[in-house]
């Protein structure tokens, strides 16, 4: 990794993949086809892209049973414990409806209501992502969503990965469909004979899935457009170079466009981390992916002071931020922008990915400057409650009418003044 002196104004590296015009046109055509032809289009594109012939997308009870036979009890226990940890954390996020009253009889409040139906997209292909299922399904369930529909691209044997099926079943997901890509997003948004439409679509995917989510936004809600994974580590001379290197590589192996950055005040640590990254890369199964990410989007920035280093990580606004310093809790108040913050050398980023409890669906591409991790609140909506008494409208009608006339809206003014005629 390159060691770069941190200047006062520095453009920290990151990759942003917004798709090409051709990809957008392809996705738009797929969505329109699904909207018009429904299941017929799902079958066509599943064969075209996944080389699988499907007649019924719904996963059968037999497939679930066979999946359980293939998963060990130890693995099952770990999944159940992770679900419990994540459910416990999200249960603390639940917001209640509220009301307040005034002496003149005015009642104001907010009614919190869960969404009716949510679609969860789970990536497939070369790997299985049970953690993605848990992180997207649990907050929806805690929020009170009654109908959760899961879609994922089928394998060559026309089923889903065993661990994916078992995890979904452990969570109680009833509707699991073997369809992926932009066509799955179209089905969730517009509906087909076999898949009824939902109110919101969540979950990560490739660039075609991301573009499809962008294009159906407005018909349905979406969670976010997640870019390539990111990690920033803020460290001083007390940090463990081997730990830092391992954590940087834990994100680099995700994607050739993943960002992995160390910001430190210690030149000796910088050199040790660079050496550790090189040595640890040599034995990684996904060496080629991680190496490309490190080469193009990895860097070690050397700051003159900790204040300068903190300002740099705030500028980066990384998806994951690790603070490996002598006193990380003392630095925490200065951190303004990060998706998830990991404090101390034992708080490795994968702890948050799988097991601790907080959600691993996090803002990327600098959007942590203005957005948050996926929460229970993302699966609810709020209605304002307004109830005026006769006394309240009589005392305030003239003020409201005056305000309406400031905007030249006479009918608004007359609507409240009508109450004074009685």
Automatic annotation (TrEMBL):
Pathway field: Amino-acid biosynthesis; L-histidine biosynthesis; L-histidine from 5-phospho-alpha-D-ribose 1-diphosphate: step 9/9
GO cellular component: cytosol
GO molecular function: histidinol dehydrogenase activity; NAD binding; zinc ion binding
Pfam family, one: Histidinol_dh
Active site positions: 319-320
Any single GO BP term: L-histidine biosynthetic process
Coiled coil segments of this chain: none
Residues annotated to bind NAD(+): 121, 183, 206
Record's keyword terms, sorted: Amino-acid biosynthesis, Histidine biosynthesis, Metal-binding, NAD, Oxidoreductase, Zinc
InterPro entries: Ald_DH/histidinol_DH, Histidinol_DH_CS, Histidinol_DH_monofunct, Hstdl_DH
Enzyme Commission no: 1.1.1.23
Residue positions binding substrate: 229, 251, 254, 320, 353, 407, 412
CDD domains associated with the record: Histidinol_dh (cd06572)
Co-factor: note: Binds 1 zinc ion per subunit.
Superkingdom of source: Bacteria
Function: Catalyzes the sequential NAD-dependent oxidations of L-histidinol to L-histidinaldehyde and then to L-histidine.
Family to which the UniProt record says this protein belongs: Belongs to the histidinol dehydrogenase family.
The name this protein goes by in its record: Histidinol dehydrogenase
Native source species: Salipaludibacillus agaradhaerens (Bacillus agaradhaerens)
